[in-house]
């Protein structure tokens, strides 16, 4: 059996780490294309100016438009080519980070998350969306980012909702890893189907990756509430440090080398509902965790533990929490159909997938979450 594990070349986390950004740019050359929202740049402009001066580098602005679409990736690759930049910096949240991966195509890439809202920073994959914000496709690269640089002081000063959303994304890691292990499904650390040869066969998960997924869930339960309080007050505490590492590193390595299952597929299906477009990836993932637990008929104690944790930190537990006041079976079935396309990760569940059963699980999860919240 072939197994695989993938990770960034370097992960660094701590207060004021962004001041060392120039050092890592210099390992590639003298200039970098910066892909980031202007709001995120404004938040760290002082630190960027300081690291540019200290290390004698040049940072080229890209004027990122906010969506990781094929059109935006092509535009930014032209900007990099015109300016002869030596590396790419993806700074900010998930879409800026994923866009930077696509532009760099897996080489000379530095990721600087300013929020801990997803596990995107460490992975060698990206999610592409249409220009209207609907899920388009996954993209995979030959390696993970060269450097992931996490400044916890910056993250502590971001809105708490981002940190909580990151915990929603991390919440799925163990449950999807468990399903993938039970079904002996392939993981993202192996090569996607379009690249499979006799020498590069798909791979299963490792003991290391599954262990990270378990520790990810345990750390959430132990530190999540206290980390939220720290972020509410813009302070860095051990709990916040642990949750930043959980959201970014443990979840990132855990999902990519242990696999995805129903949760992220249902998330992708939910993007077909217009009301969900105003909610973060991790918020929709948190509700999708409940959907997977219902779909696999997980032990009731486990379901209640997830619901209690989610409510304690303000994660969604029903559809109205992600902008969908009500849903018909026909609407749920449309979500299920999108979640069940042949390429989706839901087929890593350890049983046959039936669209109607997925739709019913979504409706049941909504009602369970709603009643549990209002009990």
UniProtKB/TrEMBL annotation:
One function term, GO molecular function aspect: glycerol dehydrogenase (NAD+) activity
SUPFAM superfamilies cross-referenced by the UniProt entry: Dehydroquinate synthase-like
Pfam families listed in its UniProt record: Fe-ADH
Catalytic reaction equation(s): glycerol + NAD(+) = dihydroxyacetone + NADH + H(+)
GO annotation, biological process: energy derivation by oxidation of organic compounds; glycerol catabolic process
Cleaved signal peptide residues: none
Coiled coil: none
Cofactor: Zn(2+)
Binding-site positions, NAD(+): 94-98, 123, 129
Pathway participation: Polyol metabolism; glycerol fermentation; glycerone phosphate from glycerol (oxidative route): step 1/2
Alcohol dehydrogenase iron-type/glycerol dehydrogenase GldA domain residues: 8-152
Family to which the UniProt record says this protein belongs: Belongs to the iron-containing alcohol dehydrogenase family.
Source species of the chain: Vagococcus fluvialis
Residues given in the record as glycerol binding sites: 119, 169, 264, 281
UniProt keyword Zinc present: yes
KW Signal (keyword) present: no
Protein name stated in the entry: Glycerol dehydrogenase
Free-text remark on how the cofactor is bound: Binds 1 zinc ion per subunit.
Keywords recorded for this protein, A-Z: Glycerol metabolism, Metal-binding, NAD, Oxidoreductase, Zinc
InterPro entries associated with the record: ADH_Fe/GldA, ADH_Fe_CS, Glycerol_DH
EC number(s) from the headed UniProt entry: 1.1.1.6
A GO cellular-component term linked to this record: cytosol
